[in-house]
């Protein structure tokens, strides 16, 4: 049982499948007192409700809908950990005919969705000394043209995550940026990846990060290869307070 999770109240967006569902399972196994299942379709959370009963509570949340995020934050005032996992992928190159529409959709969910969640839940996290966890991606630091618009949206969400860290950390809120490589989810299959890493690897890495002081988390084998090359820059410029040091 993790002391960073035991008896905590957690909210997970996109909790009904993939990485989100694994986070729910893992956090409850680690002793979380309650998990809010933030999903677009409440019916999709029925298997988790049947498995965990009163330890979970479903909230209808579409992070592209500001009103639904605000309503969820009004209910979940007791939240200690918010994990913004929900995201969308539209396989597209920026120069494709649908490139602009794809980017609009991905930015609305992957970037503005994070902003909506952070803004709505910041008061509760500040009051409870909580943690905001954002699921980004290795494509946030390296664009891949086959899903170039998705990479753009994740680069933007990573930049926003850095801004949230600088804004919220002085207020007692920890921020964690998670950068998986290909993971065995519906989105991973949509992107065409075979033999992708297990969702358990991502959930376990978040548990470890909550127990430590990490901002960056690169959980799976491919992600660790990215981190090996990126770490020195990240430590020197992203994580360092270079304005204060200057």
From TrEMBL:
Pfam families: adh_short (PF00106). Gene3D superfamilies: NAD(P)-binding Rossmann-like Domain (3.40.50.720). SMART domains: PKS_KR. This is SDR family oxidoreductase. Residues 8-150 form the Ketoreductase domain. Belongs to the short-chain dehydrogenases/reductases (SDR) family. Keywords: Oxidoreductase.
